[in-house]
Amino acid sequence: MSKKLLPRDLPEEELIYPGTRACAGCSFALAYRFALKALGRRTIACTPASCSTVHAGMYPVTSLQIPMLNTAFESTAAALSGIRAALDILGKKDITVLGWAGDGGTVDIGIQALSGAAERETDMIYVCYDNEAYMNTGVQRSGATPYGAFTTTTPTGKRQKRKNMPAIMAAHGVPYVATANPSYPIDLYLKFKKAKEEFKGKTRYIHIIAPCPPGWGFDQSDTIRIGRLATQCGIWPLYELIEGKLVLSKVTRDLVEGKTKRKPVKEYFRAQTRFRTLSDEDIQKIQKEIDRQFETYKSL
Fold first, then answer.
1. What is the CATH number of domain 21-299?
2. What percent of the chain clears pLDDT 70, i.e. is strictly above it?
3. Which of 13, 31, 76, 104 is the 20 to 30 Å CA partner of 66?
4. Crossing angle for the helix pair 27-39 and 223-232, nearest 10 degrees?
């Protein structure tokens, strides 16, 4: 049995300088920190217009200690393909090419380029940090906004379900797809290590929930708690799809096996003002959907 990884075992080197322009309580910044600990300095990042652009800072100042290319909203994955091709020509096979895009730049505006890169089997790790709306431009709905959530373009709550982007990427035949949560940083770190070391040369996709205090309507001190609630109630299950095979991460597997009790989704919804328009009937319907999903996990 492999040794359990403890926080003290993580690399001490920080590849993001302190004092970024991220909002207080920003979970995507925490996810970025642990992802880069796993990937190391031999990484080139590419990001579209998004909160990650703000986080990096305006040229010539940057919060990152790795090269980073800003690109147009729709072209992150296309730019990654170009970077990868250039590195291959130069014989620099040991550099990891990382896409770091929000949900708008992934499930909506960037999905065409991402689909094309996956079809070409670009050697890259593409990350969607999902704060479930266009947060950087004023909290407009995206294809990842969940049912019932308030945004400035859905003031009475969105009435459509969100896209299942990990399933879409798995349908492309991507060999490694995973979900992650910065409230479980060790799990997140290990998934990036696996993506880098075990699936080198192939397209890898990691979808990270990114609780957003101003956009979701909770106090900045509650970021970790909200992230944990998302997984503990089953809204954001943690898993890997390895060559199409579902592998549940420990925290979700324990919920499925009954080793820990799943929390009611109502606890998650009531902790955020963006779900204030959800009725009790809506919440009961969503709870039943989550219950059915976990019964499916049991059968697998």
1. 3.40.50.970
2. 99
3. 104
4. 80
Which DSSP string corresponds to 53-83?
A: HHHH-STT--SBSS-EEE--TT-HHHHHHHH
Contacts of 89 (CB under 8 A, 6+ apart): none
C-alpha 128 chain-centroid distance = 4
d(CA 159, CA 154): 8
Per-domain boundaries in the chain? 21-299
Residue 71: other Cβ atoms inside 10 A: 23
SS3 call for 179: strand
Backbone angles phi, psi at 189, to 5 degrees: -60, -45
Chain centroid to Cα 223, Å, comes to 15
Statement: residue 2 has pLDDT above 80: no
State pTM to two decimals. Answer: 0.97
Could you give the strand order of the β-sheet that contains 68-70, starting from the edge strand earlier in sequence? 68-70, 43-47, 96-102, 124-130, 203-209, 176-180, 239-242, 245-248
Q: Which amino acid is at 93?
A: K
